User: Fold TonB-dependent receptor from Chitinophaga rhizophila.
Amino acid sequence: MKTRLLMLLGICLLLMQVTYAQQRYTISGYIKDQQNGESLIGISVSKAGTGLGTVTNEYGFYSLTLPAGDHEIQFSYIGYAPVKMNISLNANKNLDVKLEKSSSQLSTVTVTGNKQEKAINTLSTSLNRLDIAQMKKMPTFMGEVDVLRSIQTLPGVNTVGEGANGFNVRGGAADENLILLDEAPVYNSTHMLGFFSVFNPDAVKSVNLIKGGFPAEYGGRTSSVLDIRMKDGNNQKFNVNGGISNVFSRLSLEGPIKKDESSFILAARRSYIDVLMKPFLKGDMKDTKLNFYDVTGKVNFKLNKNNTLFASGYLGRDVFGFGTQVNMNWGNKTATVRWNHVFTNKTFMNLTTFYSNYDYSLDFNNESDKGASEATQKYKWTSNIINYGVKPAFTFYINTQNSVHFGLQGIYYTFKPGTGTGVEGDETSIKQLTQQHGLEAAAYLDHEWKPSPKFGVQYGVRLSSYQYLGKGTAYYYNDTTPGIRKTLAGTREYGANELIKAYSYLEPRITARYNVATNHALKASYARTTQFMHQLSNTASPTPLDIWTPSTNNIKPQVADQYTVGYVYDAPSDAFELSAEAFYKNMENQLDYIDNASLQLNQQIEADLLQSHSRSYGLELMAKKEVGKTTGWVSYTLSRSERQTNGISKNEWFLNRYDRTHNVNVVVTRELSKRTSLSANWVYASGTPATFADSRLEFQDWDIPYNSTDKRNNYRLPSFHRLDMSLTVKGKQLRRWKGEWVFSLYNVYGRRNAYTIYFRQNDDDPSKKEAVRLSIIGSIIPGITYNFKF
Assistant:
């Protein structure tokens, strides 16, 4: 009996030990910067000496589940002193941590993220991260740091030329990029006809560019996602940042509303090129306008340990005009309200609501000063697109190997394609196109699974739907010969919010990583994406006046399938990183145009549109060095982008407008001393395709050029290349005041890169045509900026 009792007691103790060993608890909380209270994204949180760990999300929140017992937890991030804590886990714990910047690391390391964020340790393919510290080391245009110019040095990213609005990713159009500012969509991302971005660097915290392998939470575009997060504002002390240059001035204020619990940031910029040019402009050009301004603001409130509220907004505008005759005006407005809520130590929610409004106008004014014999003529065209959206998103941290992301999204669109007002003498005429409305909705779910340190996979699905709604007139067209304007078959009137046409798509996503050896990883991904809106443009001119239109009963949504495979090598010392990715992207229902299509104020614009099939494929290589006095990267892209449209180019494949066969970027920064650094950027790209005449017809001593092959984009513009350099000199760092001078040279050797080539009559012999190269910039442009902080 005694023996049996001892055996039973031993079994009970063993069961208790097994039960205790299986018991697991969770550590969760927020990680912030010790100096300014900013939440830190991508911080590595791990059990020391093991592969068990996680990273903080976009709001600095983390959740780590471990077995009961004693653990040494490590919090680490390049540029910050690592923190280790011994924790005894016998219950769930809430643990907020503040990290302190390490001055010794900052002197020799470009702050780009932590080890956990490096490509070899993430599941993501085609993901590039940049931060302001990195951008400030790059050569600048007119001495100013710029987000869009920085991402254009990355593989797979280019533009159709200097001064072009937006950017192109892997052969896609500019409107195929989803650009988010604190989760609100931005429709025109540039100022001053493409030379500056709308994002004030003093207010930007992080920049993520995703070119493929999109997580299921992102949708609505087919080429890329540019996710920009604004600073929360310093919740420890009041700070002033600013800069004065020969282009514009900027100023930002940030500080605590209540220390440790709430803060704000307010940043503003205003250009004054037109003011500086005014003494040199005479006659009809004396009233020329060329300026922009923007204001960015954000506040946040920590309501309690489980609830945080954020509100942010942006307001910007550009004005561009030739004297009093022609004026353009455009701008963005966005507003975002977000609520972070921690349901449990494993469940995190972010609820976002946003508003976005992009509007633009064009004015012509021909006021006569010759009396009543010549009537005054005026014309004004306005257009805009308005969004309202809501996005509840949830993350459930199951354990260190598993997490689930899911959510809903809804966006209501109002398109105002155009209102034209004409005045001739005493008569006024108004032409207004019918407003269009749409509702986009989506539900998504993905699962991130890391069964071992060597292997990880993230797979999911997104269900997207779009409803084209009234009030308005729907047009129905007869099928005609491709390439010829469609004929109208009939119309139908729809009431407010009445369904005209509905679309729905299932978008599967998967990405995987396998570490074949220490510091070597292979990656692969597939993603289907859908886009329900389109930008109409049949010109190469760099203007912001292109028209946005939704998918309708005549215009199908764009659909893209992208496949990516890649290889990553990360040197053991973190000295450099090598990566290579090959991609293939198939795109359906992209818009094209019949010859001589009319876009502005065309009520039946759909009759001039064609939908085409596109494909792009290529290889992207990148070598990056992050440690030492000399840092930077070299990127090379070999790619092809083609299109096939029935009725165009004899129904054969032709080169896309955004095709660049070769694209090279070399970015180098050299720390000359503790206070001085020199940086340079050299870019080379094949010329973009263009359509030119290849034959001529002689008629009565006149040369008439024409395209005998009837093929689009049958030639290329000359290759594009440019060198930029900048020198940064830091002043003596006083107790509160910190200042630096930035001297820059843009287009160092004065290259006249062709934006386009056009033909005109020869001045000496009007019967002959001559080709003229149009260059937006054809000389060296110096810049100087003084930056300060106190």
In short: The mean pLDDT is 86. The longest strand covers residues 402-424.
